[in-house]
Amino acid sequence: MEEEREEKETEVQNNEEEVKKQQEDVLKTDDDLGNVKTFEDLLQVVGTRGRWNLLLFLVCAYATYVPAHQTLSYQFLGATPDYWCHIAPLVEANWTQEQVLNFAIPTNKETGKFEHCLQYNYTYSKVAALGYEGAVNAGLVPLPNNTPMVSCASRDFNLTQYESTLTIEWDLVCERRVLYSTTQAAVQVGKLVGYLFHGFLLDRYGRRPVVLWSALFTVVAGFLAASSPNVELYICLLIVILCMTSGCYLGCFILQMETCSTKERSMVGTLFVVPWALGYMVVPGIAYLVRRWRELQAVVTVPALVFIAHYWLLPVLAGSLCEVNNTQGLPLGFKINRKTLPPDHVLLAAMKKIRSLDVREEEKQEQQASLPTRALKFVKQFTSLLRVKALRKKILIVFFCWFASSMIYYGIALNATNLSANVYLYIFLGGLLEMPSYLLLWPAVVYLGRVRSLSSLYFMCAVCIFSLSVCIIFTSDVPVGVMMFLSLTGKVAITAAFHLIWMMTAELFPTKYRSLALSHSSVTSRCGSILSPYINDILGEVIMWAPSMVFGLTSLVAGGLCLFLPETRDRSLTEDIKFEDSQQLGSQSDVCTRETLERQNNETAGGPSGERTDTSDNKTPQDGKTNPAYTQEAEENNKQANTNL
Coil, helix or strand for 115? Predict the structure, then answer.
């Protein structure tokens, strides 16, 4: 009996200690929440490296995987087999494909292949009844040098190469070839429109609603595109699809960045693009198994159905974290990360405190602004960077680098047809080589710096692509493996350059202009990617080596121009135009800190009210005194910047 009594007493004592410990944990959590001033403080209480954070990352990163299917399926949906003019009288007379080609289709003198869009101008109804052998015996075969050639209105396709593509169904060759290129340009137009307008929608209506509605429209438009009766409607639906997938991506990316700590942001931002490479590699496998284009369009839309799960996962995992009265995501975060859950009223009070401290009046007014008002403001801001003298040269160089990177990236990625390469293998390897592009960039940046790394990557791409052009021009029978090696090596370089110019753009411009520089640069990059399919499909069909020459020349110019950008390695982010004025283009010196600059101003001007001065060698005399002319120029630039925004 005594032993049982002692066991009960011990058990009660342990329970009391456990309850006491839980109460202490709750009090400690309450104290931590009482000290919360920003959302990052609240995340530190929830935990930033727990299972909740990993699960949220996987849910959000899926939005990067889906767009790869719609973006890179273009060469499979619109694959173009061999084709030639349709000679109706001969086909109706049951002439074979070989007989039609030998009798009615001229041969290209340069390539030795049959012409795609030309036929001999001949009265074929006269020989159709005689049959092929009868026409040959009667000497009615058209003579290449004496028989004129004309273009044809319709084509026949070699259906043994591809069973069904949108090119075959809608005759997207010859004079209609531009419509085929437009199907890929529509993908980039959709992305451009999506990024322009979804920023406004995400601020106005929140992350979760925009992601869910975008996912719904992606699925609906994707399946409608698979049943499209004509190419014009198909192009419009493609714009809708990519516009909506951009909303899913942008909403999930912003939500992920908002729910990870500052220390993890670089890592998360890098890993967030890995699903794109995975989707890139999966596309050729799907296309190999599904050969008919309508079924393929439906299949590449199926992954978007997984977004349906976001209806439950996003509110449970993250909730509308910016809304004051919504805390449903955080309790589960506490639970999954094995943190003590505070009472609802304490958590709600912390959220209200964050909201009151974080949202300024001007931000509220901006969020409440109408769409036309925001559009007008965007138009004014678009030229503001060009109107600031201190930033003009840099932003023009950055614009061209973004334009070049995007045009060359998509131009190389979707250039398998011009290289006569196996399109399935080419695109798979292109996706596989995305990984080395991400990994090799970092040591280059550490040891060489930003500018030299960027210039070297552009020059490396230019050398590879120029070498490819030279091989095609001077060698009639270049091994496909050699062409693929040169093309994909150039792609590795341009992929890394694309990532690096993105990072440099954030470092080059002061805080007030940083987001403007990034958003406007994204617009210029989409202009480049819109041009790439026309260069590949239209120019490449006329001159096989011309697209590679265009891409190589563009990369060479970008490599030279970026040498005029300042080095940003080991420099703190600039905060205003005055700091920008203190850095000359191409200078390798570290940026001056605010405290140092203020101290120099006080020494030269005689006190805190003195004007700020530049400390660069080119602008400050050897005796350390302020250059009045340059100080006045810096002040004028800063006033002009404030006026522009």
Answer: coil
